[in-house]
Amino acid sequence: MPPSPTPYSDYTLTCLGVGEGWPSGSRRQASFVYRFGPTRILVDCGDGMSAAFQGSGIDYETLDAVVLSHMHSDHVGGFSMFVQSLWLNQRRRPLPVYAPARAVPALKAWLEATVLPAGLIGFELQWHALEPDIPFQIGSVMVTAFPTTHLDSLRRSFEHVHPIIAFEAFSFLLDDSNRRVGHTADIGQAADLDLLLAARPSLLVSELSHIELGDLAARVRGAELDRIIFVHVARALLENLDQLENQLRNELEGLAFALARDDDVYSF
Fold first, then answer.
1. Which of 105, 128, 118 is nearest to 41 (CA)?
2. What SS3 class is residue 118?
3. How many angstroms separate the CA atoms of 12 and 32, rounded?
4. Could you count the other beta carbons within 10 Å of the beta carbon of residue 208?
């Protein structure tokens, strides 16, 4: 693989963790910092991201919000430790946290259970429930959460006996009028891409674990994308990297792409 990309602008994506749900000795779980000029947004808090955030050199005080796509542990398993990291590094600014509506009370209870009550940590967590298709502002960035079908089958099987579990899952459009990015988090089917692609992002950051490559390629061909960065790639696909890269070149028909690794930083 080519060397890790390096940033050359004020618009960057820092990959704190690009792994899928399976534990791995070589990949942390999903967590990403988007910088849009003066605004920094953390999307998801997978396991291991606190050490990665510390290593990235990003100032804890400069983070403008945390956005959590859904409650699978590979996307939120590092949240409590990250709040502890913010406390120990003496963050003082209020920190907005956006999450699925049913997830908010669970996240609050989790922090209480891990001895991180509001009166201890030294800064205010401002809780917001994600509302489908309704944009909200974080600094200079307008964020829109689009519902996905990622947890629909689990909802059908378990919601009647576990009615308080958050079975919502979201992808995100991030737009500051200069740059527009689509972030899939986890999706359930290729059609989940349609709302993101309809918004015409120049960059798509897409999982490649819960969707077939051929189905994804069929959806993005013809879209006005400059590039796709693949994250959350299924471990089976990574067993033969040369084969995967050749397949991507063939399926994407010339569309620029990258297979992200932990700690990669991309400009967009």
1. 128
2. helix
3. 10
4. 21
Which residue type occupies 150? H
Report the domain count for the chain.
Answer: 1
* Residue 75 exposure: Cα atoms within 13 Å on the Cβ side: 23
Number of Cβ within 10 Å of residue 106's Cβ equals: 15
Considering the domain boundaries, does residue 194 fall inside one?
yes
Beta partners for 203? Answer: 181, 227
Residue 123, domain CATH: 3.60.15.10
110 lies in a domain?
Answer: yes
User: What does the alpha-carbon distance between residue 22 and residue 139 come to, in Å, rounded to a whole number?
Assistant: 34
HSE-up of 203 (CA within 13 Å, CB side)?
19
155: domain range?
11-267
Residue 1 lies in a domain: no
- In a domain, residue 3? The reply is no
- Choose among 22, 79, 73: nearest CA to 49: 79
- The Cα diameter of the chain in Å comes to 55
How far, in Å, are 73, 81, 88, 128 from residue 92 at the CA level?
A: 27, 17, 11, 19
Q: What is the pLDDT along the chain (268 residues), one digit of tens a residue?
A: 444 454 457 999 999 999 999 999 999 999 999 999 999 999 999 999 999 999 999 999 999 999 999 999 999 999 999 999 999 999 999 999 999 999 999 999 999 999 999 999 999 999 999 999 999 999 999 999 999 999 999 999 999 999 999 999 999 999 999 999 999 999 999 999 999 999 999 999 999 999 999 999 999 988 999 999 999 999 999 999 999 999 999 999 999 999 999 999 999 9
Residue 267, beta-bridge partner list: 12
pTM (two decimals): 0.95
Residue 123 is given by DSSP the state: S
